[in-house]
Amino acid sequence: MKKIVLLFSFIYFSIFASGQYFDQKLTKTAAFDHFLQQVESNPAIGADSALYLLSHWNNYPQISSTAREYVYFFEDSFYGNVPLRIFIPASYKNDHKNSLILSLHGAVNISNFGRVSLTIRNEAPKNESDVDPFFDYLSKQNSIIVRPYADPEIKFDWVVNRFAKGVTNPDSVITNLTFATLNKIINQLKSFLNIDDSKVFAIGHSDGSDGAFALEVYTPSAFAGFACYNSMLTNIFASNIYLRNMLNRPCYIIHSDLDDLRPIEQARVIIHELKTFNSPISYKEYIGYKHFDKHLEKDIPDGLKFFNKTTRDPYHPDIYWETNDPAYAQIDWIRITRFDLHKDPAVWQKGINVKSYNKIKKQFEEYDYYRNAESCAIKGSYKNNVFELKTSRVNGFEILIGQQMIDWNLPVQVIVNGKKVFDKKVEKDKTMLIKNFRENRDRQALWISRIDVSL
User: Cβ distance 299 to 286 under 8 Å?
Assistant: First the structure.
Protein backbone atom coordinates (compact mmCIF):
# COMPACT_ATOMS: atom_id res chain seq x y z
CA MET A 1 0.00 0.00 0.00
CA LYS A 2 2.84 2.40 0.86
CA LYS A 3 4.37 1.80 -2.56
CA ILE A 4 1.06 2.67 -4.23
CA VAL A 5 0.75 5.93 -2.28
CA LEU A 6 4.33 6.88 -3.14
CA LEU A 7 3.69 6.06 -6.77
CA PHE A 8 0.56 8.19 -6.88
CA SER A 9 2.39 11.04 -5.18
CA PHE A 10 5.17 10.75 -7.75
CA ILE A 11 2.71 10.93 -10.63
CA TYR A 12 0.77 13.75 -9.03
CA PHE A 13 3.62 16.04 -8.07
CA SER A 14 5.25 15.54 -11.46
CA ILE A 15 2.47 17.56 -13.03
CA PHE A 16 3.48 20.77 -11.26
CA ALA A 17 6.12 23.08 -12.64
CA SER A 18 6.82 26.79 -12.50
CA GLY A 19 4.59 29.11 -14.48
CA GLN A 20 3.30 32.65 -14.78
CA TYR A 21 0.06 34.37 -15.65
CA PHE A 22 -0.95 35.39 -19.14
CA ASP A 23 -0.95 39.12 -19.74
CA GLN A 24 -4.52 40.18 -18.90
CA LYS A 25 -4.73 42.14 -22.12
CA LEU A 26 -4.10 38.94 -24.04
CA THR A 27 -6.91 36.94 -22.41
CA LYS A 28 -9.55 39.64 -22.61
CA THR A 29 -12.19 38.70 -25.17
CA ALA A 30 -13.19 42.27 -26.04
CA ALA A 31 -12.07 41.96 -29.68
CA PHE A 32 -13.93 38.68 -30.11
CA ASP A 33 -17.07 39.99 -28.39
CA HIS A 34 -17.03 43.22 -30.39
CA PHE A 35 -16.64 41.33 -33.66
CA LEU A 36 -19.55 39.05 -32.85
CA GLN A 37 -21.75 41.96 -31.81
CA GLN A 38 -21.00 43.77 -35.07
CA VAL A 39 -21.93 40.72 -37.14
CA GLU A 40 -25.07 40.18 -35.09
CA SER A 41 -26.38 43.76 -35.17
CA ASN A 42 -25.59 44.63 -38.79
CA PRO A 43 -28.72 43.95 -40.91
CA ALA A 44 -26.63 44.11 -44.07
CA ILE A 45 -24.84 40.92 -42.99
CA GLY A 46 -27.04 37.98 -43.91
CA ALA A 47 -26.71 34.37 -42.85
CA ASP A 48 -24.27 33.43 -45.64
CA SER A 49 -22.04 36.42 -45.00
CA ALA A 50 -22.11 35.76 -41.25
CA LEU A 51 -21.14 32.15 -41.89
CA TYR A 52 -18.14 33.27 -43.93
CA LEU A 53 -17.06 35.84 -41.33
CA LEU A 54 -17.32 33.43 -38.41
CA SER A 55 -15.50 30.61 -40.16
CA HIS A 56 -12.67 32.99 -41.14
CA TRP A 57 -12.33 34.81 -37.81
CA ASN A 58 -8.59 35.04 -37.22
CA ASN A 59 -7.96 38.15 -35.12
CA TYR A 60 -6.08 36.62 -32.19
CA PRO A 61 -3.59 38.46 -29.98
CA GLN A 62 0.12 37.80 -30.30
CA ILE A 63 1.92 35.82 -27.62
CA SER A 64 5.45 37.17 -27.44
CA SER A 65 6.88 34.52 -25.14
CA THR A 66 6.33 30.94 -26.31
CA ALA A 67 7.80 27.50 -25.51
CA ARG A 68 6.56 27.94 -21.96
CA GLU A 69 3.63 27.33 -19.64
CA TYR A 70 1.20 29.91 -18.32
CA VAL A 71 -1.25 29.78 -15.41
CA TYR A 72 -4.84 30.62 -16.28
CA PHE A 73 -8.03 30.73 -14.23
CA PHE A 74 -11.34 29.84 -15.82
CA GLU A 75 -14.32 31.42 -14.11
CA ASP A 76 -16.97 28.74 -13.75
CA SER A 77 -20.50 29.40 -12.48
CA PHE A 78 -20.38 26.36 -10.19
CA TYR A 79 -16.72 25.69 -9.37
CA GLY A 80 -15.51 29.27 -9.22
CA ASN A 81 -11.97 29.92 -10.48
CA VAL A 82 -10.69 26.69 -12.02
CA PRO A 83 -6.88 26.80 -12.35
CA LEU A 84 -5.08 25.28 -15.30
CA ARG A 85 -1.73 25.46 -17.00
CA ILE A 86 -1.44 26.18 -20.68
CA PHE A 87 1.69 25.35 -22.63
CA ILE A 88 2.25 27.52 -25.72
CA PRO A 89 4.61 25.79 -28.17
CA ALA A 90 7.54 27.58 -29.77
CA SER A 91 5.83 27.19 -33.15
CA TYR A 92 2.69 29.04 -32.05
CA LYS A 93 1.55 31.84 -34.37
CA ASN A 94 -1.58 33.82 -33.73
CA ASP A 95 -2.57 33.76 -37.42
CA HIS A 96 -2.28 29.96 -37.80
CA LYS A 97 -4.50 27.24 -36.38
CA ASN A 98 -2.91 25.10 -33.69
CA SER A 99 -3.89 21.66 -32.41
CA LEU A 100 -4.78 21.38 -28.73
CA ILE A 101 -4.27 18.49 -26.31
CA LEU A 102 -6.22 18.40 -23.06
CA SER A 103 -4.00 16.39 -20.71
CA LEU A 104 -5.71 15.13 -17.56
CA HIS A 105 -3.49 14.16 -14.64
CA GLY A 106 -3.71 11.05 -12.48
CA ALA A 107 -3.85 10.75 -8.67
CA VAL A 108 -6.96 12.91 -8.65
CA ASN A 109 -7.76 12.00 -5.05
CA ILE A 110 -4.79 14.00 -3.71
CA SER A 111 -5.23 17.00 -5.98
CA ASN A 112 -6.75 20.39 -5.20
CA PHE A 113 -6.96 23.87 -6.70
CA GLY A 114 -4.61 25.24 -4.05
CA ARG A 115 -1.66 23.45 -5.65
CA VAL A 116 -1.56 26.13 -8.32
CA SER A 117 -0.10 28.58 -5.80
CA LEU A 118 3.12 26.54 -5.71
CA THR A 119 3.33 26.77 -9.48
CA ILE A 120 2.90 30.53 -9.46
CA ARG A 121 5.49 31.05 -6.69
CA ASN A 122 7.95 28.61 -8.29
CA GLU A 123 7.84 26.47 -5.15
CA ALA A 124 6.93 23.24 -6.94
CA PRO A 125 9.72 20.65 -7.09
CA LYS A 126 12.06 21.38 -9.99
CA ASN A 127 12.70 19.31 -13.12
CA GLU A 128 9.65 17.14 -12.51
CA SER A 129 8.38 17.57 -16.07
CA ASP A 130 11.30 15.32 -17.01
CA VAL A 131 9.48 12.36 -15.44
CA ASP A 132 5.99 13.28 -16.62
CA PRO A 133 4.94 10.38 -18.90
CA PHE A 134 3.57 12.66 -21.62
CA PHE A 135 4.36 16.34 -21.17
CA ASP A 136 8.06 16.33 -21.99
CA TYR A 137 7.38 14.61 -25.30
CA LEU A 138 4.17 16.40 -26.23
CA SER A 139 5.64 19.83 -25.47
CA LYS A 140 7.99 19.35 -28.42
CA GLN A 141 5.18 18.53 -30.87
CA ASN A 142 3.81 21.98 -31.77
CA SER A 143 0.53 21.60 -29.86
CA ILE A 144 -1.10 23.77 -27.23
CA ILE A 145 -1.28 21.65 -24.06
CA VAL A 146 -3.96 22.35 -21.46
CA ARG A 147 -3.55 20.80 -18.01
CA PRO A 148 -6.29 21.54 -15.47
CA TYR A 149 -6.07 20.79 -11.75
CA ALA A 150 -8.69 18.49 -10.23
CA ASP A 151 -10.23 19.16 -6.82
CA PRO A 152 -12.38 16.31 -5.44
CA GLU A 153 -13.32 18.39 -2.38
CA ILE A 154 -15.47 20.63 -4.57
CA LYS A 155 -16.43 17.79 -6.94
CA PHE A 156 -14.21 18.82 -9.86
CA ASP A 157 -13.24 15.21 -10.43
CA TRP A 158 -12.95 13.32 -13.71
CA VAL A 159 -12.55 9.85 -12.19
CA VAL A 160 -15.41 9.87 -9.64
CA ASN A 161 -18.89 11.35 -9.96
CA ARG A 162 -18.80 13.12 -6.60
CA PHE A 163 -22.32 14.46 -7.14
CA ALA A 164 -23.67 10.89 -7.08
CA LYS A 165 -21.57 9.57 -4.21
CA GLY A 166 -23.78 7.84 -1.67
CA VAL A 167 -26.80 7.64 -3.98
CA THR A 168 -28.43 4.26 -3.48
CA ASN A 169 -31.10 4.45 -6.19
CA PRO A 170 -29.58 2.95 -9.36
CA ASP A 171 -32.10 4.86 -11.49
CA SER A 172 -30.96 8.22 -10.16
CA VAL A 173 -29.30 10.42 -12.77
CA ILE A 174 -26.94 12.95 -11.25
CA THR A 175 -24.80 14.99 -13.59
CA ASN A 176 -21.05 15.17 -13.07
CA LEU A 177 -20.50 18.82 -13.99
CA THR A 178 -16.76 18.26 -14.45
CA PHE A 179 -17.05 17.32 -18.11
CA ALA A 180 -19.28 20.25 -19.03
CA THR A 181 -16.74 22.56 -17.39
CA LEU A 182 -13.82 20.98 -19.25
CA ASN A 183 -15.67 21.71 -22.48
CA LYS A 184 -16.40 25.28 -21.43
CA ILE A 185 -12.71 25.78 -20.69
CA ILE A 186 -11.78 24.78 -24.23
CA ASN A 187 -14.51 27.03 -25.65
CA GLN A 188 -13.20 29.98 -23.63
CA LEU A 189 -9.62 29.44 -24.77
CA LYS A 190 -10.80 29.66 -28.38
CA SER A 191 -11.55 33.34 -27.74
CA PHE A 192 -7.87 34.30 -27.53
CA LEU A 193 -5.89 31.28 -28.80
CA ASN A 194 -5.96 30.23 -32.44
CA ILE A 195 -7.09 26.64 -31.95
CA ASP A 196 -7.76 24.22 -34.78
CA ASP A 197 -11.30 22.97 -34.10
CA SER A 198 -10.64 19.80 -36.07
CA LYS A 199 -7.58 18.86 -33.97
CA VAL A 200 -8.63 18.93 -30.30
CA PHE A 201 -7.76 15.81 -28.28
CA ALA A 202 -7.90 14.49 -24.71
CA ILE A 203 -5.26 12.24 -23.20
CA GLY A 204 -4.58 10.76 -19.80
CA HIS A 205 -2.98 7.97 -17.80
CA SER A 206 -4.66 6.18 -14.87
CA ASP A 207 -7.26 8.57 -13.39
CA GLY A 208 -6.56 10.94 -16.27
CA SER A 209 -7.41 8.26 -18.79
CA ASP A 210 -10.74 7.68 -17.05
CA GLY A 211 -11.45 11.37 -17.62
CA ALA A 212 -10.60 11.13 -21.31
CA PHE A 213 -12.83 8.07 -21.61
CA ALA A 214 -15.73 9.83 -19.85
CA LEU A 215 -15.43 12.84 -22.16
CA GLU A 216 -15.98 10.51 -25.10
CA VAL A 217 -18.99 8.86 -23.46
CA TYR A 218 -20.64 12.10 -22.27
CA THR A 219 -19.62 15.05 -24.42
CA PRO A 220 -17.29 14.28 -27.34
CA SER A 221 -18.50 16.84 -29.91
CA ALA A 222 -15.59 19.28 -29.52
CA PHE A 223 -12.97 16.55 -29.79
CA ALA A 224 -11.36 14.71 -32.68
CA GLY A 225 -10.23 11.72 -30.61
CA PHE A 226 -9.12 10.37 -27.23
CA ALA A 227 -6.11 8.49 -25.85
CA CYS A 228 -6.48 6.38 -22.71
CA TYR A 229 -3.50 4.77 -20.98
CA ASN A 230 -4.27 2.17 -18.29
CA SER A 231 -7.89 3.19 -17.89
CA MET A 232 -10.70 1.63 -15.85
CA LEU A 233 -12.98 2.71 -18.73
CA THR A 234 -15.64 3.97 -16.36
CA ASN A 235 -16.61 6.88 -14.10
CA ILE A 236 -17.00 5.74 -10.49
CA PHE A 237 -20.55 6.06 -9.06
CA ALA A 238 -21.93 6.97 -12.49
CA SER A 239 -25.06 5.19 -13.71
CA ASN A 240 -24.84 6.16 -17.37
CA ILE A 241 -21.77 4.67 -19.02
CA TYR A 242 -23.19 3.80 -22.44
CA LEU A 243 -20.39 2.23 -24.47
CA ARG A 244 -22.09 2.61 -27.85
CA ASN A 245 -21.47 6.35 -27.61
CA MET A 246 -17.89 5.45 -28.50
CA LEU A 247 -19.08 4.90 -32.08
CA ASN A 248 -18.78 8.62 -32.74
CA ARG A 249 -15.06 9.23 -32.15
CA PRO A 250 -11.85 7.18 -32.45
CA CYS A 251 -10.14 6.17 -29.22
CA TYR A 252 -6.56 4.97 -28.70
CA ILE A 253 -6.39 2.58 -25.73
CA ILE A 254 -3.23 1.20 -24.12
CA HIS A 255 -2.93 -1.25 -21.24
CA SER A 256 -0.14 -3.19 -19.54
CA ASP A 257 -0.52 -6.74 -18.27
CA LEU A 258 1.21 -6.30 -14.89
CA ASP A 259 -1.07 -3.43 -13.86
CA ASP A 260 -2.17 -4.31 -10.32
CA LEU A 261 -4.34 -1.18 -9.96
CA ARG A 262 -6.41 -1.49 -13.15
CA PRO A 263 -6.29 -5.19 -14.09
CA ILE A 264 -5.92 -5.89 -17.78
CA GLU A 265 -8.54 -8.66 -17.51
CA GLN A 266 -11.21 -5.99 -16.98
CA ALA A 267 -9.97 -3.92 -19.88
CA ARG A 268 -9.99 -6.93 -22.20
CA VAL A 269 -13.66 -7.78 -21.71
CA ILE A 270 -14.63 -4.13 -22.33
CA ILE A 271 -12.48 -3.96 -25.45
CA HIS A 272 -14.14 -7.16 -26.66
CA GLU A 273 -17.57 -5.53 -26.34
CA LEU A 274 -16.42 -2.39 -28.14
CA LYS A 275 -15.19 -4.49 -31.04
CA THR A 276 -18.51 -6.35 -31.36
CA PHE A 277 -20.21 -3.18 -32.62
CA ASN A 278 -17.20 -1.86 -34.54
CA SER A 279 -16.34 1.06 -32.31
CA PRO A 280 -13.40 2.91 -33.92
CA ILE A 281 -10.84 1.97 -31.29
CA SER A 282 -7.17 1.12 -31.51
CA TYR A 283 -6.07 -1.18 -28.70
CA LYS A 284 -2.57 -2.26 -27.74
CA GLU A 285 -1.16 -4.25 -24.85
CA TYR A 286 2.32 -4.04 -23.35
CA ILE A 287 3.44 -7.32 -21.82
CA GLY A 288 5.76 -7.22 -18.83
CA TYR A 289 4.93 -3.66 -17.72
CA LYS A 290 3.22 -2.36 -14.58
CA HIS A 291 0.67 0.41 -14.09
CA PHE A 292 3.16 3.29 -14.17
CA ASP A 293 6.04 1.98 -16.20
CA LYS A 294 8.28 2.56 -19.20
CA HIS A 295 5.55 1.49 -21.61
CA LEU A 296 4.14 5.03 -21.31
CA GLU A 297 7.33 6.65 -22.57
CA LYS A 298 7.75 3.90 -25.14
CA ASP A 299 4.26 4.28 -26.60
CA ILE A 300 3.67 8.04 -26.61
CA PRO A 301 5.21 8.49 -30.12
CA ASP A 302 2.54 6.09 -31.40
CA GLY A 303 -0.08 8.02 -29.48
CA LEU A 304 1.05 11.16 -31.25
CA LYS A 305 0.80 9.38 -34.60
CA PHE A 306 -2.82 8.61 -33.71
CA PHE A 307 -3.44 12.31 -33.06
CA ASN A 308 -1.70 13.36 -36.27
CA LYS A 309 -3.81 11.09 -38.47
CA THR A 310 -7.10 11.87 -36.70
CA THR A 311 -9.26 14.82 -37.72
CA ARG A 312 -12.73 15.71 -36.50
CA ASP A 313 -15.67 15.74 -38.90
CA PRO A 314 -18.69 17.24 -37.08
CA TYR A 315 -20.83 16.58 -40.16
CA HIS A 316 -20.18 12.84 -40.43
CA PRO A 317 -23.28 11.20 -41.93
CA ASP A 318 -23.78 8.39 -39.40
CA ILE A 319 -24.60 9.05 -35.78
CA TYR A 320 -25.55 7.32 -32.54
CA TRP A 321 -26.28 8.72 -29.10
CA GLU A 322 -27.56 7.27 -25.86
CA THR A 323 -28.24 9.19 -22.66
CA ASN A 324 -30.41 9.63 -19.61
CA ASP A 325 -29.06 13.07 -18.76
CA PRO A 326 -30.34 16.29 -20.40
CA ALA A 327 -26.95 17.88 -19.69
CA TYR A 328 -25.23 15.40 -22.02
CA ALA A 329 -27.82 14.96 -24.75
CA GLN A 330 -26.00 16.12 -27.90
CA ILE A 331 -23.58 14.62 -30.36
CA ASP A 332 -22.63 16.82 -33.31
CA TRP A 333 -25.78 17.42 -35.40
CA ILE A 334 -28.27 15.65 -33.12
CA ARG A 335 -29.59 17.09 -29.87
CA ILE A 336 -32.15 15.12 -27.86
CA THR A 337 -34.58 17.60 -26.31
CA ARG A 338 -37.16 15.36 -24.61
CA PHE A 339 -37.31 11.73 -23.54
CA ASP A 340 -39.42 9.40 -21.42
CA LEU A 341 -37.59 6.57 -19.67
CA HIS A 342 -40.86 5.00 -18.54
CA LYS A 343 -41.58 3.90 -22.09
CA ASP A 344 -40.53 0.51 -23.36
CA PRO A 345 -37.26 0.71 -25.31
CA ALA A 346 -37.14 -0.03 -29.02
CA VAL A 347 -36.16 -3.60 -29.85
CA TRP A 348 -32.86 -2.42 -31.34
CA GLN A 349 -31.76 -0.64 -28.15
CA LYS A 350 -29.73 -3.24 -26.31
CA GLY A 351 -27.89 -2.62 -23.09
CA ILE A 352 -24.21 -3.50 -22.83
CA ASN A 353 -22.52 -4.81 -19.76
CA VAL A 354 -19.58 -6.93 -18.69
CA LYS A 355 -18.73 -8.87 -15.57
CA SER A 356 -16.53 -7.30 -12.92
CA TYR A 357 -13.02 -8.61 -12.35
CA ASN A 358 -11.95 -8.98 -8.72
CA LYS A 359 -8.26 -8.09 -8.67
CA ILE A 360 -7.84 -9.49 -5.15
CA LYS A 361 -9.36 -12.90 -5.90
CA LYS A 362 -8.12 -12.71 -9.50
CA GLN A 363 -11.42 -13.90 -10.89
CA PHE A 364 -14.58 -12.51 -12.48
CA GLU A 365 -17.61 -11.93 -10.27
CA GLU A 366 -21.25 -12.28 -11.24
CA TYR A 367 -22.20 -8.64 -10.69
CA ASP A 368 -22.12 -6.17 -13.58
CA TYR A 369 -19.26 -3.75 -14.07
CA TYR A 370 -21.58 -0.97 -15.33
CA ARG A 371 -24.63 -0.38 -13.18
CA ASN A 372 -26.48 1.73 -15.69
CA ALA A 373 -29.89 3.30 -15.33
CA GLU A 374 -32.47 3.20 -18.14
CA SER A 375 -31.68 5.37 -21.15
CA CYS A 376 -33.01 6.75 -24.40
CA ALA A 377 -31.22 6.45 -27.72
CA ILE A 378 -31.21 7.79 -31.24
CA LYS A 379 -29.35 6.68 -34.35
CA GLY A 380 -29.47 7.77 -37.94
CA SER A 381 -27.84 9.02 -41.08
CA TYR A 382 -28.33 11.54 -43.86
CA LYS A 383 -27.76 11.56 -47.60
CA ASN A 384 -29.12 13.59 -50.53
CA ASN A 385 -31.28 15.82 -48.30
CA VAL A 386 -32.88 12.83 -46.55
CA PHE A 387 -32.38 12.24 -42.82
CA GLU A 388 -33.38 8.79 -41.62
CA LEU A 389 -33.47 8.20 -37.87
CA LYS A 390 -34.60 5.62 -35.35
CA THR A 391 -35.47 6.55 -31.81
CA SER A 392 -35.99 4.76 -28.52
CA ARG A 393 -37.81 6.55 -25.68
CA VAL A 394 -37.14 9.89 -27.39
CA ASN A 395 -40.04 12.36 -27.49
CA GLY A 396 -38.24 15.18 -29.27
CA PHE A 397 -34.96 16.11 -30.89
CA GLU A 398 -33.28 18.70 -33.07
CA ILE A 399 -31.37 18.16 -36.29
CA LEU A 400 -28.66 20.81 -36.58
CA ILE A 401 -27.67 21.60 -40.15
CA GLY A 402 -24.34 22.84 -41.42
CA GLN A 403 -23.80 24.59 -44.74
CA GLN A 404 -22.45 21.57 -46.60
CA MET A 405 -24.85 18.97 -45.24
CA ILE A 406 -27.70 19.61 -47.68
CA ASP A 407 -28.63 21.17 -51.02
CA TRP A 408 -30.40 24.34 -49.89
CA ASN A 409 -32.34 24.61 -53.12
CA LEU A 410 -34.20 21.36 -52.47
CA PRO A 411 -36.64 20.20 -49.78
CA VAL A 412 -35.33 18.26 -46.80
CA GLN A 413 -37.02 15.05 -45.74
CA VAL A 414 -36.89 13.65 -42.22
CA ILE A 415 -37.97 10.04 -41.73
CA VAL A 416 -38.25 8.83 -38.14
CA ASN A 417 -38.95 5.18 -37.35
CA GLY A 418 -40.09 4.66 -40.93
CA LYS A 419 -42.50 7.61 -40.93
CA LYS A 420 -41.96 10.87 -42.82
CA VAL A 421 -42.30 13.73 -40.33
CA PHE A 422 -40.82 16.63 -42.33
CA ASP A 423 -40.68 17.47 -46.05
CA LYS A 424 -39.91 21.05 -47.06
CA LYS A 425 -37.13 23.53 -47.63
CA VAL A 426 -35.29 24.93 -44.64
CA GLU A 427 -34.04 28.47 -44.21
CA LYS A 428 -30.69 29.67 -42.94
CA ASP A 429 -30.90 31.26 -39.52
CA LYS A 430 -28.33 33.92 -38.69
CA THR A 431 -29.57 34.28 -35.10
CA MET A 432 -29.12 30.57 -34.44
CA LEU A 433 -25.70 30.59 -36.08
CA ILE A 434 -24.42 33.39 -33.86
CA LYS A 435 -25.98 31.95 -30.69
CA ASN A 436 -24.17 28.65 -31.19
CA PHE A 437 -20.91 30.37 -32.12
CA ARG A 438 -21.06 32.56 -29.03
CA GLU A 439 -21.38 29.42 -26.89
CA ASN A 440 -18.71 27.23 -28.46
CA ARG A 441 -16.42 29.53 -30.51
CA ASP A 442 -16.21 26.69 -33.02
CA ARG A 443 -15.22 27.89 -36.49
CA GLN A 444 -15.80 24.47 -38.04
CA ALA A 445 -19.05 23.13 -36.56
CA LEU A 446 -21.22 26.03 -37.68
CA TRP A 447 -24.92 25.24 -37.35
CA ILE A 448 -26.93 27.54 -39.61
CA SER A 449 -30.35 25.90 -39.47
CA ARG A 450 -32.25 23.32 -37.47
CA ILE A 451 -35.29 21.10 -37.68
CA ASP A 452 -37.31 20.50 -34.50
CA VAL A 453 -38.96 17.10 -34.37
CA SER A 454 -41.68 16.15 -31.86
CA LEU A 455 -42.77 12.53 -31.54
Answer: yes
Quick: pLDDT tens for 242-291: 999 999 999 999 999 999 999 999 999 999 999 999 999 999 999 999 99
Between strands 281-286 and 98-104, the pairing is unpaired
Domain 2-21+61-309 has CATH 3.40.50.1820: yes
Of 247, 186, 250, 240, the C-alpha closest to 218 is: 240
DSSP letter, residue 151: B
Strand bridging mode 334-339 / 330-331: antiparallel
Q: Using CA of residue 24, residue 181, residue 308, residue 195, what is the dihedral sign?
A: negative
d(CA 194, CA 32) in angstroms, rounded, equals 12
Residues 6+ apart with CB under 8 A from 311: 198, 199, 224
Q: What are the tens digits of pLDDT across the range 282-315?
A: 999 999 999 999 999 999 999 999 999 999 999 9
Please work out, in degrees rounded to the nearest 5, the angle formed at the alpha carbon of residue 308 by the alpha carbons of 303 and 310. Answer: 95
- Report CA torsion sign: 236, 220, 327, 335: negative
Domain ranges of the chain: 2-21+61-309, 318-454
- Which of 414, 395, 397 lies closest to 406 in space, CA to CA? 414
State how beta strands 251-256 and 281-286 pair.
parallel
Report pTM: 0.92
Spatial contact of 250 and 278, defined as CB atoms under 8 Å apart: no
Question: Quick check: 101 and 201 in contact, CB under 8 A?
Answer: yes
Distance CA 454, CA 397 (A): 7
Q: Evaluate the CA torsion angle 194, 200, 206, 207 in order and state its sign.
A: positive
Nearest to 195 by CA among 47, 49, 327, 89: 89
Phi, then psi, of 119 in degrees rounded to 5: -65, -45
- DSSP states of 72-123 as a string? EEEEETTTEEEEEEEEE-TT--TTS-EEEEEEE-S-GGG--GGGHHHHHTT-
**In Å, how far are 152, 159, 329 from 111, measured between CA atoms?**
7, 12, 29
- The CA distance from 386 to 363, in Å, is 49
CA distance 243 to 320: 11
DSSP-based three-state secondary structure for 397: strand
Q: Report the C-alpha gap between 261 and 290 in whole angstroms.
A: 9
Question: Which residues are bridge partners to 452 per DSSP?
Answer: 398
Contacts of 19 (CB under 8 A, 6+ apart): 68, 69, 70, 71, 85, 119, 120
